[in-house]
Amino acid sequence: MKVNIPGLHNSDENHWQTLLEKTHPEDFIRINQENWDQPECNAWINKIERDLLTKNHLDLILIGHSIGCIAIVKWVEKFGHAIKGALLVAPSDSENENYPSYIKGFTPIPKSKLPFPTLVVGSTNDHVTTVERTKEFAANWGSKLIMLEDAGHIEPKSGFGPWPQVEVLIKELE
């Protein structure tokens, strides 16, 4: 089972995460947060835990976007579950001094190697993090790093509604 964990404001109807769910409704679920507009880390990771509690964790591939990536890493840090794998797309740098203050509790970003296969996908011109930080995240978490050229924040505004490559990346984790 694949589990989408969107970032700030959720993923709209044109976002690649939503399109995956529409294309493969039997294979994808979404963690729906109670407050998409003012993320609070403990609330988010506790919701992930509640929604996945009855699932076989070793069958799960988590697919995060932006602050959803950091939520996944913080969830693993708190609850220690091993899963099949995780695709972490455009992880946002919640430790940046200019990061929005209404996104709370996502610091410090864990630096430990994750106990399952992971892919980090970044962009050379993401406005939410730098190339250097994306590389640091991948190195810390033991992830394979894939850098896209000029892909922005890998969201609809950056041209990533339909994103066929994401299915190839997910298959790499299966």
Give a written overview of the molecule:
- The protein has 174 residues and is α/β, with parallel strands linked by helices.
- The protein has one domain (2-173): Alpha/Beta hydrolase fold, catalytic domain (Rossmann fold, 3-Layer(aba) Sandwich), CATH 3.40.50.
- The chain is 30% helix and 16% strand.
- It is built from five helices and six strands.
- The chain has helices at 16-23, 41-52, 67-79, 131-141, 165-173, and strands spanning 2-5, 28-30, 61-65, 85-89, 118-123, 144-148.
- The protein has a six-stranded parallel beta sheet, with helices on both faces.
- Helix 2 crosses helix 3 (67-79).
- The longest helix is centred in the middle third of the chain and has 13 residues, at 67-79.
- The protein is globular and about 40 Å long.
- The chain starts with a strand and ends with a helix.
- The mean pLDDT is 97.
- It comes from Mangrovivirga cuniculi.
- GO terms for molecular function: hydrolase activity.
